[in-house]
Automatic annotation (TrEMBL):
Domain NADPH-dependent FMN reductase-like: from-to ranges: 4-149
Superkingdom per UniProt: Bacteria
InterPro entries: Flavoprotein-like_sf (IPR029039), FMN_Rdtase-like_dom (IPR005025), NAD(P)H-dep_reductase (IPR050712)
Designated name of the protein: NAD(P)H-dependent oxidoreductase
């Protein structure tokens, strides 16, 4: 059966390059791997006082994440880290203590930036957070992309064949990792 992966895009901007990348990746995904973007723009600022009375967007966000078999983060770099809105969403999913939606879910990290370092620093910060959240995260291949004019076609696809093939390979590697993880995981009844 299909593997369903939640995709979190770290930019809320309408014309986000990371949003375009996430949509292009969903189209490149191999059979059996379904990438679905989960919104978090409607989450309030995380406040521990509200753990016992989550608003509807918080409940929806956690239900969607809980149903996913893995999580792919597609995020820009803001000031050499991840955007605050993404950290806020991660914090929401991690609480109440002991009820994290993240624990054990295989993660993948991608990003595109206008800068030449292609979100590398943000990705390192994010990997640190994911390690703490107990998310086994694909280490190779790493994906550091620089947005230049013509990176995306007008239809929103990735223009360069070699980049497209590289990202397809990444998706296959990630899918295999999620399957291995599922096979190893003992289902408690
Ligand atoms: C940036 N940008 C940026 N780029 C980068 O490579 N390293 C960085 O540390 C930062 N810092 C940063 C902070 C803030 C607040 C903004 C708004 C932008 C530029 C960033 O790569 C560019 O705006 C991308 O277009 C953002 O990604 P989306 O929104 O296109 O997905």
């Amino acid at each position: 059966s299909d593997i369903r992966i939640a995709v979190l895009v770290g930019s809320l901007r309408n014309d986000s390059f990371n949003g375009q990348l996430a949509r292009a990746m969903a189209k490149l995904a191999p059979d059996g791997l379904v990438l679905e973007q989960v919104r978090f723009d409607d989450l309030p600022h995380y406040n521990q006082d509200d753990d016992g009375r989550p608003t509807e967007p918080v409940r929806r966000f956690k239900t969607q994440l809980a149903a996913a078999q893995g999580v792919v983060f597609v995020t820009p770099e803001y000031n050499r880290s991840i955007p605050g809105v993404l950290k806020n969403a991660i914090d929401h999913g991690s609480r109440p203590y002991g009820q994290s939606v993240w624990a054990g879910k295989p993660a993948g990290v991608l990003g595109i930036s206008v800068g030449a370092m292609g979100t590398s620093m943000a990705q390192q910060h994010l990997r640190n957070i994911l390690a703490y959240l107990d998310m086994p995260t694909l280490g190779q291949p790493e994906v550091y992309l620089q947005q230049k004019h013509g990176f995306f076609t007008d239809a929103g696809d990735i223009a360069a064949d070699d980049t497209k093939q590289f990202l397809q390979k990444w998706l296959e590697t990630y899918a295999a990792r999620v399957r291995e993880h599922n096979d190893r995981t003992i289902v408690k009844t």
